[in-house]
Amino acid sequence: MIEYIIILFVSFITIMFLTQVLFFEISRKKMIEAHNLNWFLSLDRQFHYNRTGYMVFVCLVCYFISSPEKLFTVRWLIYFIVFLALGIIADVIVQYLTLLYGKKRCHKQITDSRLLKNELVEISQTMSEDIPYQESVSQYDDKDILNKYVDSSSHLAFLTVDGGNYVRDYNHFTEATFVVEPYGDIEKTKMKLSDLPVKVTKLTPAGQMPFKDQKIDVVMCMNSNYDKYEISRILKQDGYFLVHQNGTANYKEFLQMYMPFGMKGSWDAYSCAQTLEEIGMRIIEKFEDYGTIRFTSVQAIHSYFKKVSPDLADMNKYQAFYLNALKTIKENHFYEMTTHKFLVVAQKG
What we know:
Number of strands: 8
Structural class: alpha/beta
Strand content: 15-25%
Radius of gyration: 29 Å
Number of helices: 13
Order of helices and strands: HHHHHEHEHEHEEHEHHEHHE
Helix content: 40-55%
Distance between the termini: 86 Å
């Protein structure tokens, strides 16, 4: 009987280990394809077992299904404790062997990732601002396009999420220029634009644009979400709505790392125009720009994101991305990202 239990126990461990190895190899392949060096760093650790609760649940379910003993008797309980103990011991052994296998199998990736992480830490401690990077030439100028639809008497509203940076660089203000900051700190935006002839405001508590019906001649939306029905409500008849946003392919190298299954559908000039046509707006013109931005250092990437998207400049939060960028720069002398933006001009009919 003891020999049978030992054979069964060893067979169980063998099957579990081979299964774990199979899943490990699948994960390893995916992580290599995704350039996720953080995953390899996670293998560089001491063994620590933390699946006791999980195994109690699994063993309990299996025992309920397979046990020939009468439920909740002393004999049933004793056999369950033995079954549970063997299950946990087997899982501990399998998890430990899997970790050893992973360290042996991925020794080079672990070593390389550790060295890159140490280098990244050193870089983060000596970071400087305004490191140059190379952007492809834009296919259109959004400010020039906006100026075509604005004159000195226009009621112009900007819907932005950048704390007033875009409006700060704009130089064609009208007799009534408004800045709507839907999510950010409105007081900081007011301070930034205090010397300009603009009125800074925000959405109403109900999430509506803070204007009366048919009040605005031109609305310029810069990388912000918007309610198309609200835009239609506040626009005068024959007023213009300009949508300038990032498309689905923007920073796709970054998104593929943190969203490996991608996003459903596509967001581009065509799909944006289609949504506006659905509420009766007439599309005047559309512009699409697929470009690239090339960096020769991690410092340049950090400097770029510090300006355009401060959250992405967090090197600890997005360590996997920065590690991959550093690795690519060391191998190819540069790291390149895709940019995708579009602009749609629609007129209220």
